[in-house]
Amino acid sequence: MFETVDPATGDVIDTVPEASAGDVDAAVTAAKRAFASSEWAEMLPATRARLLWKIADLLEEHAEELARLETRDQGQPFGISSTISVPNAVEHFRYYAGWATKLHGSTVPLSIPGVDYRNWREPLGVCGLITPWNFPLMIAAWKLAPALVTGNTVVVKPAEQTPLSTLRLAELCVEAGVPRGVVNVVTGGPAVGQALVRHPDVAKISFTGSTEVGREIAGEAGRRLARVSLELGGKAPSIITPDVDIDAILEGNIMGGLLNCGQVCAAYTRFYVDEPRAEEFAGKIAAVAASMQLGNGLDPSTQLGPLVSQEQLQRVDRYVQQGTSEGATLVTGGRRSGGALANGYFFEPTVFTDVDDTMTIAREEIFGPVLSVIPYRDADDLARRANDTEYGLAAVIWSRDIGTANRLAHDIKAGTVWINLPPFLDAAAPWGGMKASGVGREMGWDAILSYTETKSVWTSLG
């Protein structure tokens, strides 16, 4: 067993089983058996749609319970877990329920006489879904809903820091009527994930997490030619053009940079501001950040919760110290919270200015409430500077000139570019990264493709 801890207090919430290699094998075996069962394999599309819709209904019915569980286990304010995390999970199941009756192949005219050709999509088999600790329930839904609607069975491995909402989701799947063995959960640390990735009967791994671990998973999957999709790290630039009213964009940038205490792979972390206004922007965003109420996510007044763990707290602190030592100017924050918050993993929202592209805080993913203001002189060089990173998950452009905004959106190498928006997501919009930010896409029709194979059927008409 291992303990899962409330990051706001440091108190133990519960103990959870540490799965062994044998437990992983048992889960995969159960999923493999369920995949071949007539109850699952032959389920009618309309029945599968109702099943996913029922899961969505149960998530909605238990929304407050799930949001509180997510807040206690992960730390995000209840306002986030109740208005973003749980509703987004609900909508993913409803969105993919609609695809159940619309999965189709095609007929294609061939240049070969006397032949009828058609193709269709088939499920892959057992899929290993490895989810992160920043949005446990929501990202589990991103993976689970398309995997189920396409007829796969799954073994889910949640992050060891935040397993509770995933276990509750699995219980609700059973309550909804998902057949035995279709959805399995194994809990534990990296060794459990490794056992799942290496299992010969797992046809696909879908992983969300760090680029470092993603590379290891890709290597393991590649050796046995398993399918893999990876949603990895990010270092999103926020590009602010000279024509923008700084006061009008502060709220969107604060949301983009500090949502979930900055523990978001698409967090706005590099703020490119024209040099004459860089100090103004830094001062204003620092003032807003410094005014935010830190506290337990279950307190209605809390705007910013804790980091997820002591390990993450120490990681963020190291980056802040490095930023100072490399010459960045600390405007606000930069330290662990004390007083009544001392037992939790709280870190003050931190803003640096006088940052350049070579500094560690401008290049590496911190995954915490640390914002870097980077001045620029040459607007024509913005796309190059934004692209000067190994990451390519997301970017945002703030501009009143639609031509400038769209030229930058075209030139920036990122899977998603928002224009004059905080980081919105929708089940219908494909999500994923370029370069070291990942392989493949989640959400939309792209997720259907990632959980299926195309089968071609040729028939002689002679």
Structure description:
The protein is of the alpha/beta class. It has two domains: 2-232 and 437-460, Aldehyde Dehydrogenase, Chain A, domain 1 (3-Layer(aba) Sandwich); 236-419, Aldehyde Dehydrogenase, Chain A, domain 2 (3-Layer(aba) Sandwich), CATH 3.40.309.10. The chain contains 16 helices and 20 strands. The strands form five sheets. The protein has a seven-stranded mixed beta sheet with strand order 12-13-14-11-10-16-17, with helices on both faces. The protein is globular and about 75 Å long. The model has no long low-confidence stretch (mean pLDDT 97).
Give the arrangement of secondary structure elements:
Layout: E1 2-5, E2 12-16, H1 21-36, H2 38-41, H3 45-61, H4 63-74, H5 78-99, E3 106-107, E4 115-123, E5 126-130, H6 136-149, E6 153-157, H7 164-176, E7 183-185, H8 190-198, E8 204-208, H9 211-223, E9 227-231, E10 236-240, H10 246-258, E11 268-274, H11 278-291, H12 310-325, E12 329-332, E13 350-353, H13 360-363, E14 370-376, H14 382-387, E15 391-392, E16 394-398, H15 402-411, E17 416-419, E18 434-435, E19 438-439, H16 444-450, E20 452-460
Parallel strand pairs: 5-6, 5-8, 6-7, 8-9, 10-11, 10-16, 11-14, 13-14, 16-17
Antiparallel strand pairs: 1-2, 3-4, 4-20, 9-19, 12-13, 15-18
Helix pairs in contact: 1-8, 3-5, 3-7, 4-5, 5-6, 10-11
